[in-house]
Amino acid sequence: MDTDVVVVGAGLAGLRCAAELVAAGLGVVVLEAGSEVGGRIRTDRVDGFQVDHGFQLLNPAYPAVRRWVDTAALGLGSFDAGVAALTTDRLLRLGHPLRAPGLLGSTVRGAACELRGLPGLLRWLRPLARDPRGRRLDALRREADTTLADSLDAARLSGTLRRVLERFFAGVLLDDTGASSATFARLLTVSFLAGDPGLPAAGMQALPHQLAAPLGDRVRLGTPVGRIEARQGGFDVRTDDGPITARRVVVATGQAAAGSLTGLPVRPMRGVVTHWYAAARTPTASRLLHVDARPRPTGPLVNTAVVSHAAPTYAPAGQHLVQASALIADGRPVPSEPAMRRHAAELLGDDAFADWESLARHEIRHALPVQAPPLDVARPVVLPSGLVVCGDHRDTASIQGALVSGHRAAQGVLDELATG
């Protein structure tokens, strides 16, 4: 055998898996088809700006992030724990009373104006307060799951506060239909309440770079895998440079490639388009995500934000970086750049949007796996064929899910080798 384990794919899941196997003393080779580690996480440098492929945030409150990521070394620039929602007659700024004390006044005023919706919101949040002995996540997973829309109906949540919640989750889940798992939405809410999501000083790709650092030259970039064949005592991994033999193989690619290599069914994916703009000035100093909570939004965006207010390293001195994100899907028209620009300016209150400079546009058709109810947070990672598979499509559609699935895959390999 050439090595103990081949890991196919250097995304978050594959890197986490490889690190644990190396720590266990195994020989590991990581094969990555692309020119960089990180999977769907990429950061480009454009005219002195940092632009990620899609608007992603790192939540330091995720248990897996707390366990396996050195967030201090990443130098996170954090967004405020809240949201700015444009309503029919005002801009509503809502924030966590403890994590965003500067928003306390506007939050109280906004809540006072939306008294009709408060009981419904509290009913929807009630499951988060259960299980006082600290097993809240397990308690949520045990509850009967429904769609997000059905859970909001059951809580009798309506009006502006419902629209704020729906539009916020549309950007997080990449789903504006309300068909995603309510349990998953509540699990995400737990993390949002516990931490302030942010961006690494060097861009989101600093996260996979940090995870890859301990692996050194075990990672081979630009090495696509054509197929994996079983052989006595292990597997042949076929590449353009010839086969690599290994006792075990972990498939840590995106879902489509994993399906091709393993025969697993491919779940539906959700897509997003993100446009990035340079602005000489902005009318707001907000470090909030801005959403359109009007009954009839006037544009395609699920959210927009002045990213450089939260993460100043994303823009050169004296400049600002604006992101605008909208959903894309088969049979759904792709929003035009002018429509996205106008909607972002409206949500941010910027009359000078015509002067924004277009920096980059990323259309990501397969950004997140669909997370439909009932929530399944631990799909099997060891297949009957002996192959091991990981990725956010085997857990939850999040950085948390990717890291946990990589950990579970490593444990699966170690168990298989111990018993084989």
Quote the distance from N terminus to C terminus. Answer: 15 Å
Rg computed from alpha carbons, rounded to a whole number of angstroms: 22 Å
Quick one: how many beta strands?
Answer: 18
Low confidence ranges: none
Summarize the structure.
By secondary structure, the chain is α/β, with parallel strands linked by helices. The chain contains 14 helices and 18 strands.
What attributes does this structure have?
alpha/beta; 420 residues; 18 strands; 32% helix; 14 helices; 4-stranded antiparallel sheet; globular
Descriptive report:
The chain is an alpha/beta fold. 32% of the residues lie in helices and 24% in strands. It has 14 helices and 18 strands. It has helices at residues 12-23, 63-68, 71-74, 104-113, 118-125, 136-142, 148-154, 159-173, 182-194, 206-212, 255-262, 307-310, 337-348, 399-419, and strands at 3-8, 28-31, 43-46, 49-52, 77-78, 82-86, 91-95, 198-199, 219-220, 225-231, 234-239, 242-251, 269-279, 289-292, 301-306, 320-328, 357-369, 388-389. The strands form 5 sheets. Strands 1, 2, 9, 10, 11, 12 and 18 form a 7-stranded mixed sheet that branches. It has a 4-stranded antiparallel sheet with strand order 15-16-13-17, with helices on both faces. A 3-stranded mixed sheet has the order 7-6-14. Helix 1 links the parallel strand 1 (3-8) and strand 2. The two termini are 15 Å apart.
